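Query form — protein Histone RNA hairpin-binding protein

QUESTION: What is the three-dimensional structure of this chain?
INPUT:
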Amino acid sequence: MEHLPRVWQMPGRSRKEQCEESLPCRVEMVSVGISTELCQARWEVETDEIVLQRRQKQIDYGKRTPGYQCFLQQVPKAQRQPGLHPQTPNKNRRYSRRSWDAQIRQWRKALHSWDPPSQPLQGRGAEGQGMETPLLEPMDSTPLDGLLDDWLQTLEP
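ANSWER: The structure tokens for Histone RNA hairpin-binding protein are given below.
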């Protein structure tokens, strides 16, 4: 107890009482409420035309996906709920490049949940006959393994 101020070392009194007596005036705690809703008056508007064009290109790319097309057909705009349905990021709001890229990535990922059910791919045989091919074939090694071995051999004396 040697490291505590002398006021706090007094036996029989609570630490709170001892602390309040040591303060020159009484301090009261005040609760402050902060709204978490987005306010358009608070955000800055993106004015750089190159940035706006790049963002629009990314949005257009996402809107051309099969998932977005299915989403449009299944969920009318009036029935969309934030948090439940994907929302296109606001290209006119000023964001850092990293923040914008993260929002686009999240939006595109959410759109994939609306992708149509995948159908088996139809390939062509030697005679032009349609035959089913698996979507993924197991691989023993990656194509880069051979290149890495060749490169390492050229480095050896």
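ADDITIONAL NOTE: The chain has five helices and two strands.
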